[in-house]
Amino acid sequence: MLEFISGESPFGVASVIVSLSGIRADTLDDAAELATELDDRGVPLSLLVAPRLKGGYRLAEDAATLEWLHGRKGRGDAILLHGYDQASVKRRRAEFATLPEHEAALRLTAADRVLEAVGLRTRLFAPPRWVASPGALAALPRIGFALCADLTAVRDLRTGAVLRSRVLGVGGGNKTEPWWCRAMVMGAGRIARRGGLVRVSLDAKHLSRSGPRQAVLDALDLALHHGAVPLRYQLAAVRRAA
After folding, report:
1. Is residue 4 in a domain?
2. Which residue of 83, 91, 139, 203 shows the fewest CB atoms closer than 10 Å?
3. DSSP of the chain, one letter per residue?
4. What confidence tens digit (pLDDT) does each residue in 131-188 have?
């Protein structure tokens, strides 16, 4: 397996990826507002989508969110599978963090079928809370997935190339306190100055809070100030690093 030093950019210059999870009917307006702000900056989104969420949510029954996701996909945003059913696991445990290969394959297959049925099938995967077990990593290429973005790396599952870069996130298993938001912004600037890959993530349920939302925009703007190239999750980025 090829490995690259932490934060090495696939283009030899700084780059930045912004991802958004937790998109559903009650967060859709805030998600759309953030997407517009990123459009104004020329920055694509990477949208992390799960067929089922807590509270009995089913993506297939959420027509408004599906329409929006299709529209964003048409604009060039990336769609990543973000688990299958987080509500079915114990509280505070990430869905794919400890699964053996067989069980991971069952969940991935079920999720893949749902996304295919709603027209959002993807070969890209980001595990809930960014944590995937060795069994899950082994199951992904069996089901046909080509990329896994986890907490510390972006992995090309077909070639074995690994682009090392840690997620700077708000929510989705990461902290939301003001000190963490400040640290995230400073970390984004530091990585960008060094010519690395800045990975910023946000759970959409925090978009209604001015602090976390502004921290993500500040981190993005600081990375862009240091010349970071806006990217979305894609195999080309990992392969170019090779």
Report:
1. no
2. 91
3. --B--TTB-TTSS-EEEEEEE--STTTHHHHHHHHHHHHHHT--EEEEE-SEETTTEEGGG-HHHHHHHHHHHHTT-EEEE--SBGGGS-TT--TTSS--HHHHHHHHHHHHHHHHHTT---SEE--GGG---HHHHHHHHHHT--EEE-SSEEEETTT--EEE--EEEESTTS--SHHHHHHHHHHHHHHHHTTBEEEEEEEGGGTTSHHHHHHHHHHHHHHHHTTPEEE-S-HHHHHHH-
4. 999 999 999 999 999 999 999 999 999 999 999 999 998 765 556 677 878 889 999 9
pLDDT, tens digit, for every residue of 27-64? 999 999 999 999 999 999 999 999 998 888 999 999 99
Give dist(CA 185, CA 187) in Å, integer. Answer: 5
Residue with tokens 């950019």: 9
State the amino acid at position 68 in one-letter form. W
Asked if pLDDT for residue 224 goes beyond 90, the answer is yes
The amino acid sitting at 202 is L
Distance CA 203, CA 181 (A): 13
In a domain, 9, yes or no: no
Is 152 a domain residue? yes
Mean pLDDT value of segment 108-114: 97
Domain count, the chain: 1
Structural domain boundaries enclosing 119: 15-241
Is residue 7 assigned to a domain?
Answer: no
| Farthest-apart Cα atoms in the chain, separation | 45
